[in-house]
């Protein structure tokens, strides 16, 4: 059974996804053979993870981006340029090749409005700049990421520019923006497009009880609903849209780790798939093959 992980949008809640990814990798659930997909903050997280950016470096970058944001809700056009600068600093010169050669796909979701109105799950990246553009396309939330309602991108060899918006608009609202792996068909130049994901685990920065996900309960990772749900919702939305203190973002990373670990332990109790020991062994073998045998 092929299990893929799909990460939701989340604005400035990105550290949560970074923590969840680090935890799931530590427990052996995410390896180079695990399909990954993300939209907006989820796209940033899976890109940094799959290209080998250490979690603490990605966390520091997210703290810097948050610190440059307008303390008010209104965007001033700083978020997307700041994101692009951090990507340029973090990603290696061969980052696009790492994703293209990865055993399983990494899909970055966005919505194309023109010349066709359709969801896109991009999995092949011609250059490093194309990869950074794909992350920015996925993170283009109208009047938040920039002061514009959309992002206009001129693709190589295309006569017309493409008009795109955030990846959260690529799927029905019930999915909370978590990309659908079935959308990869026809959107990749790789034979990996034929890989069918048998089970999708959705990872959301928002408590699943506050929204409706189409996946089964044991296929969801997210914060638990607190007793004061209204306060929790207000706090979550505030952190997603406004600058937060460094210690709060570090705590958010730790919460993502904890929720990923909680799901991992529950997965073992359900006796689904490999044991933790077997998963760690599988992950170690995959890393050895990637960095020593293939080299």
TrEMBL record:
SUPFAM superfamilies linked: FabD/lysophospholipase-like (SSF52151)
One cellular-component annotation, GO: membrane
GO function term, MF aspect, one: triacylglycerol lipase activity
Gene Ontology terms describing biological process: lipid homeostasis; triglyceride catabolic process
Top-level taxon of the source organism: Eukaryota
Protein known as: PNPLA domain-containing protein
């Amino acid at each position: 059974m092929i299990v893929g992980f799909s990460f939701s949008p989340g604005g400035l809640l990105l550290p949560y996804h970074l923590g969840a990814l680090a935890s799931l990798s530590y427990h052996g659930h995410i390896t180079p053979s695990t399909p990954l997909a993300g939209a907006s903050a989820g796209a940033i997280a899976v890109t940094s993870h799959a290209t080998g950016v250490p979690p603490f470096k990605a966390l520091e970058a997210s703290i810097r981006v948050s610190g440059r944001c307008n303390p008010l809700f209104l965007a001033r056009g700083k978020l997307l340029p700041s994101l692009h600068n951090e990507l340029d600093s973090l990603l290696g010169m061969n980052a696009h090749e790492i994703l293209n050669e990865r055993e399983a796909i990494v899909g970055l979701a966005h919505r194309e409005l023109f010349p066709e109105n359709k969801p896109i799950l991009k999995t092949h990246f011609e250059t490093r700049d194309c990869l950074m553009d794909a992350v920015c396309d996925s993170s283009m939330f109208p009047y938040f990421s920039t002061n514009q309602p959309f992002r206009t991108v001129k693709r190589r060899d295309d006569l017309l520019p493409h008009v795109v918006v955030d990846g959260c608009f690529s799927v029905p609202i019930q999915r909370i923006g978590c990309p659908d792996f079935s959308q990869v068909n026809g959107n990749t130049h790789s034979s990996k497009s034929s890989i069918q994901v048998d089970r999708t685990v959705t990872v959301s920065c928002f408590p699943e009880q506050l929204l409706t996900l189409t996946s089964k309960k044991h296929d969801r990772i997210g914060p638990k609903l607190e007793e004061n749900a209204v306060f929790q919702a207000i706090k979550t939305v505030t952190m997603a849209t406004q600058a937060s203190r460094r210690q709060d973002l570090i705590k958010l990373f730790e919460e993502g780790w904890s929720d990923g670990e909680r799901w991992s332990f529950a997965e073992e109790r359900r006796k689904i798939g490999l044991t933790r020991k077997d998963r760690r062994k599988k992950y170690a073998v995959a890393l050895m093959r990637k960095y020593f045998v293939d080299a």
